[in-house]
């Protein structure tokens, strides 16, 4: 019997930009996550199903075998730690960056120069802690789960560490990007045990994705 493969994806850019890679592997998702309320989506292949989870939860589902394979942003992987999974491919999709942003009237360079203690609001506490510690800047991190842009606007934080893609969200909220911490793209992640137990079907998907990326 062909083993069932469960693929974890998050709605939005990652889902949309993974579809062409799935097509290259002969896999077509049969329902649109934007209109369906289902969390388990069937595909044209009886042995492959897609589960929809929060972007930050993709590594956790793959780590614990809730999914055999998944597509996770480098940001989510760094925050999670990446234990229990292989990371065979940088899919080079859902590209953006993690940056530091402040209110336009906040003198970030001077605050850093003076060795001020910065209040930084972010969902990305690991990335932020590492970045500021490497710079020797003391920070108090405020963990948020979304709408980070609000924190400097209402005086709760001096800076945010967040994903920036077009920069439109920052501009709309009068924030400026003052440092780029790292480039982000999405990676294919595979549960370590699944790769042994379901080696052939998983390898076919990984190889098809790799070929599709190489053609771009
Ligand atoms: C991300 C990020 C910013 C926005 C940046 O949020 O947190 O708010 O995108 O994109 P831009 O530079 O193109 O404006 P996302 O929409 O992924 O949702 P989230 O708030 O759940 O992270």
Automatic annotation (TrEMBL):
Entry keywords, A to Z: Amino-acid biosynthesis, ATP-binding, Cytoplasm, Glycosyltransferase, Histidine biosynthesis, Nucleotide-binding, Transferase
Record-annotated ATP phosphoribosyltransferase catalytic domain positions = 54-209
Pfam families the UniProt entry points to: HisG
Question: Which InterPro entries does the record match to this protein?
Answer: ATP_PRibTrfase_cat, ATP_PRibTrfase_CS, ATP_PRibTrfase_HisG, ATP_PRibTrfase_HisG_short
Work out whether the entry's keyword set contains Cell wall biogenesis/degradation: no
Q: Which GO terms are recorded in the biological process aspect for this UniProt protein?
A: L-histidine biosynthetic process
User: What is the annotated localization of this protein?
Assistant: Cytoplasm
Report the main location listed first in the record.
Answer: cytoplasm
As recorded in UniProt, its EC number(s) are: 2.4.2.17
Q: Could you tell me which CDD domains the record lists for this protein?
A: PBP2_HisGs (cd13595)
Q: Does the keyword Glycosyltransferase apply?
A: yes
Molecular function terms from GO: ATP binding; ATP phosphoribosyltransferase activity
Gene Ontology cellular component?
Answer: cytoplasm
Involved pathway(s):
Amino-acid biosynthesis; L-histidine biosynthesis; L-histidine from 5-phospho-alpha-D-ribose 1-diphosphate: step 1/9
Per the record, what are the reactions this protein catalyses?
1-(5-phospho-beta-D-ribosyl)-ATP + diphosphate = 5-phospho-alpha-D-ribose 1-diphosphate + ATP
* Record function comment: Catalyzes the condensation of ATP and 5-phosphoribose 1-diphosphate to form N'-(5'-phosphoribosyl)-ATP (PR-ATP). Has a crucial role in the pathway because the rate of histidine biosynthesis seems to be controlled primarily by regulation of HisG enzymatic activity.
PANTHER family, per the entry: ATP PHOSPHORIBOSYLTRANSFERASE, ATP PHOSPHORIBOSYLTRANSFERASE ATP-PRTASE
Quote the entry's note on domains: Lacks the C-terminal regulatory region which is replaced by HisZ.
Q: Which family does it belong to?
A: Belongs to the ATP phosphoribosyltransferase family. Short subfamily.
Please describe the quaternary structure of this protein: Heteromultimer composed of HisG and HisZ subunits.
Question: What name does this protein carry?
Answer: ATP phosphoribosyltransferase
Per the UniProt record, the lineage of the source organism begins with: Bacteria, Pseudomonadati, Pseudomonadota, Betaproteobacteria, Burkholderiales
